[in-house]
Specification:
Blueprint (H helix, E strand, L loop, with lengths): L6 H4 L10 H10 L4 H5 L5 E4 L14 E12 L8 E7 L2 E7 L4 H7 L5 E11 L2 E5 L3 E3 L4 H4 L2 E4 L8 H13 L15 H9 L4 H31 L12 H9 L6 H14 L6 E6 L5 H14 L3 E5 L3 H14 L7 E4 L5 H13 L4 E4 L13 E6 L7 H8 L6 E6 L5 H8 L3 E5 L10 E6 L43 H13 L3 E5 L7 H19 L3 E4 L5 H13 L4 E4 L12 E6 L7 H8 L10 E6 L5 H12 L3 H12 L1 H5 L18 H17 L6 H12 L3 H9 L1
Parallel strand pairs: 4-6, 9-14, 9-15, 10-12, 10-13, 11-12, 13-14, 16-21, 17-19, 17-20, 18-19, 20-21
Antiparallel strand pairs: 1-8, 2-3, 2-5, 3-4, 5-6, 5-7
Helix pairs in contact: 7-8, 8-23, 8-25, 9-11, 10-11, 20-21
The protein binds adenosine-5'-diphosphate and magnesium ion.
The site of magnesium ion has 4 residues, from helix 11.
């Protein structure tokens, strides 16, 4: 329940004066639909309207303001020429220039003989100074109101700065007085918002942003603290792992020796699971570091204690793959593992559900289908969620409520920089695997241009017929040369074809990731099919195709052929981004790599280099590279380490964008800047801890005000949590 006090802030913008349905849609796009969203819009810069130079020395091209007397109106002598209004003050003459003017309204706003304040960009006109279409025309008594720092907001199609400013000042007028929730604030919340949008001077802006950002960080950390309290103070299923020789058997059965990072994570998990409290742990580790094995050891520990375990995967394809792997390594352990996805139907499904409820099934692997209420366990001891960023925060909460005793292990390969981990996952304990299995060689990454048209279906295609980009004579007018900054290899499409030919005859397995053509899956699919046709003409049935629109079974069949070597060149859309494990795939081409984000490129690249063979990833780009894309490709070329790449990503994009994808369920920061404000984040974390230690249910006087803060930043659901618990 949102407190009444906050209603003005949560009012829909469309109820404000001067905002119709069309405009409110545009506002929605710009910032969101509530008054609070609009007030959270940070100005991008400020225009200083206080600069009032003498007219004759006012610098050309800069914004200046003048108090002038209106001397004379000069309507255009003939069509096509502007309307001019001559003004003066003691420092000289100033012309105001208007194209397509309405003389009546100009005569009204600039009456001859009266004084006005005008402001705008100064232009030279021969010996004279002029302003075309002044931004401001105001009466002298409004001087204070208009000659100030004027905030500029992010641009959005169809909303003028003037409209944004007017709507903001209308909103500011409705701001309620809220009781103070900070301990010793330098500046109140309301004043901070007022100063952000109408600052007296530059220092105001910094102070107000500081206050608002800290409010935001504290709210986030309190919310996490509340969730943490609620989940961990529950008692958890008692699991005594080390006493069971089933674990020893499993570890011996694994086809590899666990890395020390895996060992450490397992220890941490075991400590949690036997503590008597419920585990709520995030296992973070780069693609290929072996998180599945860790999860399996934990699951088998639950089974050894006569409990069940469940492993949740984001896609059926991955679930199937994990199931097969688990079955193969546990085949001599007398553990029953089953699969439950949307595909198991009818009698099969009923059978699984029955055996689950009776406790016959030890480990269940599945997808979102597992969230459903009708999936009941006999005695669930451990819940593992893989690639957890695919599941929203609410699903996370819902799942943790499914069985109050069951331990929870979330796994993510999104290598989030440390600060963000705290900001977004602070409510969990965290294990990090920072190393890869020793046998792994770093993946060599190349960046090169790629001429797309060559791969259009073209029956007359013959190798060698195409122009060779490495031939200097072909450089003329070609924008697809390797950028010198990247320093990749020179080469053209037929080089790629012959490289593919060589690789295939050497028995290598190759991924070819198709371009991200647009936001629409349909067009991406078309591109993949086109590539598939093209390569099939050259390499016949060595080529396979997988994409998201295929039926699970079809997908699995193709993948199986790739695994057993029937297919050696797998054309894929980004469905293979997550988790697919083909150990001996050694080459990956990513077409239109410049269109992918860093974390996606890294995830994709992680599909090769999983075995002990040297692997290569070739990032192909088309057209001229923008600065940001070039930056990204350079980072990919330079680094293999996901955490490092994530840090770089944070530098390039900022926290909001990294965490801001809608499906991830993360909240973006409105005010705080990461990593710049990490000190504030740590401080907020400390403070939130102290607060909850002394006032775990936020019932004190300050606690009640802090509830307002939580509600303000829309963490209401975490509060329902405490009032229930
Ligand atoms: P991720 O952390 O990305 O989920 P996986 O669990 O899929 O990684 O493991 C990637 C590959 O590495 C798998 O083929 C797995 O069998 C293998 N693997 C896991 N642990 C080790 C290890 N300690 N030594 C060698 N290979 C390992
Ligand atoms: Mg995995």
């Amino acid at each position: 329940m949102r407190p009444n006090l906050l209603y003005p802030l949560f009012t829909d913008l469309q109820y404000l004066k001067g905002i119709g349905p069309a405009l409110s849609k545009r506002f929605e796009k710009l910032c969101g639909h509530k008054v609070w969203d609009l007030l959270s819009l940070k100005p991008t810069s400020f225009i200083d309207r206080r600069i009032c130079p003498p007219i004759m020395t006012a610098p050309e091209g800069e914004i200046a303001s003048f108090e002038v007397e209106i001397e004379q109106h000069k309507p255009p002598p003939k069509k096509g020429l502007p309307y001019r209004v001559l003004c003066r003050n003691e420092s000289g003459f100033l012309n105001l220039v208007f194209f397509h003017a309405y003389p009546d309204s100009l005569l009204k706003s600039l009456p001859v003989g009266e004084k006005r304040i005008v402001s705008g960009v100064v232009e030279n006109f021969g010996e004279q100074k002029q302003i075309s279409h002044p931004d401001i025309i105001a009466k002298p008594e409004d001087r204070e109101k208009v000659l100030r720092l004027e905030p500029q907001y992010p641009l959005s199609a169809g909303i003028t700065q003037k409209k944004i400013r007017a709507t903001i000042s209308q909103s500011l007028a409705t701001l309620p007085d809220l009781p103070e929730w900070q301990d010793s604030p330098q500046l109140g919340f309301k004043d901070a918002l007022l100063e952000l949008h109408s600052p007296e001077n530059e220092d105001d802006i910094e102070g107000s942003l500081q206050r608002l950002a800290y409010d935001e960080l504290l709210a986030g950390q309190l919310a996490q603290g509340l969730v943490y309290q609620q989940t961990t103070k529950k008692s958890g299923a008692k699991i005594q792992p080390r006493q069971e020789n089933l674990i020893e058997k499993l570890i011996t059965a694994l086809p590899f020796k666990l890395t020390s990072g895996q060992d450490k994570a397992i220890d941490e998990i075991f400590t949690d699971m036997q503590s008597g409290n419920r585990m709520f742990r995030l296992l973070q580790g780069d693609v290929g570091c072996g998180k599945t094995a860790v999860a399996l050891v934990a699951m088998v520990a639950a089974v050894a204690n006569k409990k069940q375990a469940v492993l949740m995967m984001p896609t059926t394809l991955l679930a199937t793959q994990q199931l097969n792997w688990i079955k193969s390594v546990t085949q001599n352990l007398d553990i029953r593992t089953e699969l439950l996805t949307g595909n198991e139907k009818g009698a099969k499904r009923a059978d699984i559900l029955k055996n689950l409820k009776s406790g016959e099934i030890d480990i269940l692997v599945g997808t979102h289908a597992l969230f459903q209420d009708w999936v009941e366990f006999a005695d669930l001891g451990l819940i593992v969620i893989d690639e957890q960023h695919r599941f929203g925060v609410l699903q996370r909460l819902k799942l943790s409520q499914k069985n109050e005793q069951a331990h929870i292990l979330l796994m993510t390969a999104t290598p989030i920089p440390r600060t963000l981990t705290i900001a977004f996952f602070g409510e969990m304990d965290i294990s990090r695997i920072t190393e890869k299995p020793a046998e792994r060689l770093p993946i060599e990454t190349l960046v090169m241009p790629f001429n797309q048209s060559t791969t259009s279906p073209n029956p007359s295609y013959k190798e060698g017929k195409y122009k060779d980009f490495s031939n200097p004579s072909y450089e003329e007018g070609d924008t697809r040369k390797t950028s010198p900054l990247i320093g990749g290899i020179e080469g053209g499409n037929d080089k790629i074809i012959s490289a593919l030919r060589r690789a295939i005859s050497n028995g290598e397995k190759i991924f070819w990731i198709c371009p991200l053509v647009s936001e629409s899956e349909k067009t991406d699919l078309a591109a993949a099919e086109e590539r598939y046709k093209f390569f099939s003409k050259i390499f016949g049935n060595k080529v396979g195709l997988v994409h998201g629109k295929m039926k699970e079974q079809q997908k699995n069949e193709v993948l199986q052929k790739f695994i057993n070597g029937e297919h050696q060149l797998l054309i894929a859309t980004t469905v293979i981004e997550v988790g697919i494990d083909v150990r001996d795939a050694t080459i990956m081409f990513i077409e239109h790599a410049e269109r992918f984000g860093l974390s996606q490129l890294h995830q994709l690249r992680g599909r090769v280099g999983r075995g002990d063979k040297k692997s290569t990833c070739i990032l192909l780009y088309a057209g001229k590279l923008g600065q940001a894309s070039e930056e990204r490709l350079k980072v990919m070329k330079k680094y293999n380490d996901g955490f490092k790449i994530a840090e770089e990503d944070l530098k390039i994009r900022g926290a909001g964008e990294i965490m801001g994808t809608r499906q991830s369920g993360f909240k973006e920061f409105k005010f705080a800047e990461m990593p710049e404000q990490q000190e504030d984040l740590f401080q907020a974390r400390e403070e939130a801890r102290k607060i909850l230690q002394s006032d775990p249910k936020l019932l004190s006087a300050r606690g009640k005000n802090l509830r307002l803060l939580l509600s303000l930043f829309e963490y209401d659901e975490t509060m329902e949590y405490i009032s229930a618990g």
